[in-house]
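Appendix C reproduces, verbatim, an entry submitted by the partner laboratory led by Prof. M.T., so that reviewers can inspect both the input and the predicted structure.
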Amino acid sequence: MKPHETALAALARKARLRRLSPRAGLDFTSNDYLGLAESDALRAAAEAALARGVPLGAGGSRLLRGNHKEHEALEAEAARFFGAEAALYFPTGFAANAALIAALPRREDIVIHDALIHASVREGLDPSRVPVVETPHNDVTAIADAIRQWRARGGTGRAWIVAETLYSMDGDRAPLSDLVALADATESMLLLDEAHATGVYGPQGRGLAAQYEGRENIIALHTCGKALGAAGGLVTCARLYRDFLVNRARGFVYSTAPSPLMASVVRAALQLAAAADDRRARLMALVAHMEQRLRGDALWRASGSPIQPIILGSDARALRFAESLQQAGYDIRAIRPPTVPEGTARLRLALTTHVTAADIDAVFAHLAAERERA
């Protein structure tokens, strides 16, 4: 048996073999929180851009011929919208996160990240180049201790603290005010992944960190493929760091530029998000309804956000629950290690404006029946 076959067989024995499957059933799994991805408004924006001659492809990297006026218009709009000095557009949020963490910290610095940080950040980490410390989830004291210990060992550079403002698998928030205070007190940089907060939280959907944007020591990542309904990733930061990324971020320098058409669509999505208070209100009403359903449940605690984990423990159990729900007409997927820690395989319920309170009731009734059968 070939090594790759052996590896796939081992995943299958652990109930961790992944397969692509088509969309089917009522959406309880996408990150299209505001329902913009298939909206008439974004479709019209794309059609209007095509009508005025915006190309689909960039044809090269931004540093060569791929830089289009639509990229620059989007970045100017994003900087204004999020309240930052500058912005830079990447093909995906994953690419942006990996590029940020790989390019910005210097050899004399240290990177300190939350234990539940996204895989895109881990992709950019290189402990052989910059020291890396992982701290327990949402433990600001542990971060402060890591910085103090590093200084005591002779650390002379700058600490880079990395966190998600809303965690993608647990749906809980980072202690933002405490993180900002620590970054200020220790002269650290704070990298905030707003992927699941952009469009959903903050004034005009500017994210959970909206009040802190524009500070020299804060860099934020806003993905465009979740609540904004489009594609790509926007880094918002001081102009100094934007210029450095343009020169030194390999994922930017050596990548074909994002589609100019998509840049135009994202700009429209920002404008839609700014005016989407009604959609956000509907979404938060669904979150409140789900919290009511979970109130008093001894096993499953409400997250307080559109992301609700239903932790089931074993991989096989999570798969069985997911299959049962899918057969009942609900698109809910099992999330297994290594995406989540060992022993915490789960269903990840994502609320969007595609569903209703009655749909939520039906899902939880099915979950309750499945739990009784377990």
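DSSP finds 14 helices and twelve strands in the chain. Additional entries are available on request from the coordinating office.
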